[in-house]
Amino acid sequence: MAKERANSPSPAKASQVSGFNFFEIAIEIRLKIYSEILVHSEPIDFVANHRSSPPSLLLSKREGLCPALLRANKKVHGEASSLLYSVNRFRFPDIYISRTSATKCPYITPFLRQIGSLAGHIRHICITFPTFDEFQHGGAVLYEADIKNLELIRDTCTSITTLELWFPPDSENYVLVDLPIATEALDLLDTRFKAVPSLKEIIVHLQVYAVEDLSHYPIKMRERGWTVETALLNRVWISDDGRVEFHNEEDCDAYNNEQLLFEWQRDKEKEDEEWIEECYRRRRDPYWKNDSDYD
Prior knowledge:
about 300 residues; 8 helices
């Protein structure tokens, strides 16, 4: 979690400095104090740190939270830990689970394993929409990594009530394009969700570039009792060098072609310069008796 605020004493230490017993304050007020330094209004975003093996999870930015408060003493930990994990929403990144994997998957295992039994307080998790295998198996099949994630959530997050799923416009769920298989796929996923006893709400964020891209997704998902929210995004094309964003494909292609031409000319000029230098070197070399090839 985020580092402790500078010069911010814990309630237990503050009570010693000021000479009063922090725990004599009404529990309602103590909970408000805990909330100020343990609860964030926006989802807490994690990013994968690929410098370690396996990758670890880090906060994407400092949220001003002070989880070190939980280490003040056992009573503070008992009163405040549930707030940190039950009120906050946690959003996890996607990574390639293995070197041979062609599909990214939400990376939640390190966090849930690290906090141990405290995962039982978590009520709200945000991940990308689970991915289905393509038509290799003749039907809808969830990727093994997504199955393991849902089983881990079921087994560790025993109080979870809300699962928030992000469906980006570049999602690799191609099986959902085919209506019969899409129906089978959503039924399969719905069965997985219902296997989590405490889960009450599924929220799907469909992100598309055009209304026609929505297809049958919202209707089929709402039929299963899921909440579906749609967002139209402004499509951008990113240049091959990753430096420039364009609002249409033609300008992006023109830029890429221009950069290719520039790189070709630069390489050609470098090659010509090296060739000229080699010609002069050989002309000056007494061992090269016949230099007619370089005239």
